[in-house]
Amino acid sequence: MSGLVLKLGPKERVLINGAVIENGDRRSRLSIKTPGAHILRLRDAIHPGEVNTPVRRVCYIAQLVLSGDADAEEARMQLLRGIEQLSQVLTDHDSRKQLTQATASVLEGQHYQALKFLRALLPREERLLAACPT
After folding, report:
1. Buried (b) or exposed (e) across 63-74, using 16+ Cβ within 10 A?
2. pTM
3. Helix (H, G, I), strand (E, B), or coil: what is residue 32?
4. Which residue, among 44, 57, 62, has the nearest Cα to 109 in the 3D structure?
5. Which of 7, 53, 79, 88 is most buried, judged by most C-beta within 10 A?
6. Where in the sequence is the domain holding 77, given as residue range(s)?
7. Coil, strand, or helix at residue 28?
């Protein structure tokens, strides 16, 4: 993750290599220079009990890689398979674009970017699920 820049709001928390770090009272900016550091913004974190939809499941896999709880190589196929399954359902142009970018990010080992593209699909998935009677 060489060159990753985190912009943190006041009191925002981030997980870096297993340590929870809380920002102070002002906005700040951190440049992460160490390649392979495990970094996850806690505001972006999905808790295990919230992994109850297809998009959330794929996001969670990327999150596990970022937190250091899953090996990137082992998770790669799960992520690509999950993205492929999502692409069979989310066929609109905007979703396809997000999924294509997420795939490219996974292939490049950029899991933070992959999570960012996948998270953009959460509101769309929520609307689709709300429109379907259960």
Report:
1. bbbbbbebebee
2. 0.86
3. strand
4. 62
5. 79
6. 46-131
7. strand
β-strand partners of 8: 28
CA distance 81 to 68: 20
**pLDDT tens digits for range 3-23:** 678 899 999 999 988 899 999
Tell me the residue type at 34. Answer: T
How far is residue 128's CA from residue 68's CA, in Å, rounded to a whole number? 32
User: What is the tens place of the pLDDT at every residue in 62-104?
Assistant: 999 999 999 999 999 999 999 999 999 999 999 999 999 999 9
Q: Are residues 21 and 85 both part of a single domain?
A: no
Question: From CA 30, how far away is CA 20, in angstroms rounded?
Answer: 14
Helices (H), 31-110: 54-67, 72-89, 93-107
**Among 34, 50, 40, 33, residue whose Cα is nearest residue 13:** 40
